[in-house]
Amino acid sequence: MEKKINIFQVDAFTDKPFQGNPAGVAFADGLSTVQMQLIAKEMNLPETAFIRKLSSQKEGQIKADYNLRWFTPTTEVEICGHATIASLHFLNENNLLKDGQEIIFNTLSGNLKCRFKDGKYFMEIPVYSMRAFTGDKEEILEALGIKKSECNDSVPFILVQNNYLYINIKSLKALHSLKPDFKKLLKLSLSKKVFEAVAVYTLETVEKENFAHSRFFAPFYGIDEDPVTGSMNGPLIQVLINAGFIKDEGEKLNYTFEQGDVLGRRGRVSVIYSSAKNELYISGNAATVFKGEMTTPSPERSTLKNGEFS
């Protein structure tokens, strides 16, 4: 017997449909991992999120309200900011999240605190360690199409614990002019086994009240360029502190970063960081594009044969 699920497409980090970053969201009840991956492949969005209500937890663990998993069209990922913001919006639209309410998602990155307040969605991001990148910069710049003259020599490439590499360039014009060779970038990611995605950012912004503008390239995850990336914009505030662009005196820092304009999908990510509390949050709006019904892949199709879905 065919099973059907309700699935939403939600644009995150925007209050307008067809801007920000699109994500699919559905409840995961009764779905296998392979079925979730097939649904994500069918949706063909940067990520599709699957939510499952939790009724219990292991002794000694902080109680989580839901399990949350994220899939690109090709693989499951450990964290996804925009699809989490979309998931919070999905819960809100299903009357399962009220203004002022906090919930906890259990994920591959651990338990993440989230909340909905004053029309905005907030998601906790892990605080990662980071270090200066000491590998071959020339081949990365070549793959990205960045001229050496466009880089700030005094600002190091920063490699974050989540294997995102951050590169600073001087101007918004140079950033928007980039035409990466994604095959070459994927080959570097696979062969070097050091970084899995690259964020290129500048302090020049479209709107003067914002602090930085970025683009994010992740062919390793099956996404050549992601429109607006929460998991990149969150750690960006630490990268900016590390590079000396932001002064951290232990007080709560709150900045807004830009992404997606070059793709025609304007998104804005607010980032709140407290080194004293070791807490990092991203926040933004979301807008539902459509609500639909999908027939799930049949169990007999949801198997793997020789590494391929049957």
What are the SSEs and their pairings?
Blueprint: E1 4-12, E2 21-27, H1 33-43, E3 47-53, E4 66-71, E5 76-77, H2 81-93, E6 102-107, E7 110-117, E8 120-124, E9 130-132, H3 137-144, E10 158-160, E11 164-168, H4 172-176, H5 182-192, E12 197-202, E13 212-218, E14 223-226, H6 230-242, E15 253-259, E16 267-274, E17 279-284, E18 286-295, E19 304-305, E20 308-309
Parallel strand pairs: 2-3, 4-6, 11-12, 13-15
Antiparallel strand pairs: 1-2, 1-18, 3-4, 4-5, 6-7, 7-8, 8-17, 9-10, 10-11, 12-13, 13-14, 15-16, 16-17, 19-20
CATH class category of the largest domain: Alpha Beta
Number of helices: 6
- DSSP strand (E) fraction? 35-45%
The biggest sheet amounts to: 18 strands, mixed
CATH topology of the largest domain: Diaminopimelate Epimerase, Chain A, domain 1
User: What is the name of the CATH architecture of the largest domain?
Assistant: Roll
Secondary-structure-based class equals: alpha+beta
Distance between the termini: 19 Å
Unreliable sequence segments:
none
- Number of domain modules: 2
Number of strands: 20
Name the shape in a single word.
globular
Can you give a write-up of this model?
By secondary structure, the protein is α+β, with helices and mostly antiparallel strands. It folds into two domains: 4-126 and 287-309, Diaminopimelate Epimerase, Chain A, domain 1 (Roll); 130-277, Diaminopimelate Epimerase, Chain A, domain 1 (Roll). It has six helices and 20 strands. The chain has helices at 33-43, 81-93, 137-144, 172-176, 182-192, 230-242, and strands at residues 4-12, 21-27, 47-53, 66-71, 76-77, 102-107, 110-117, 120-124, 130-132, 158-160, 164-168, 197-202, 212-218, 223-226, 253-259, 267-274, 279-284, 286-295, 304-305, 308-309. It has an 18-stranded mixed beta sheet that branches. Helix 3 (137-144) runs antiparallel to helix 5 (182-192). The longest helix is centred in the N-terminal third of the chain and has 13 residues, at 81-93. It is globular.
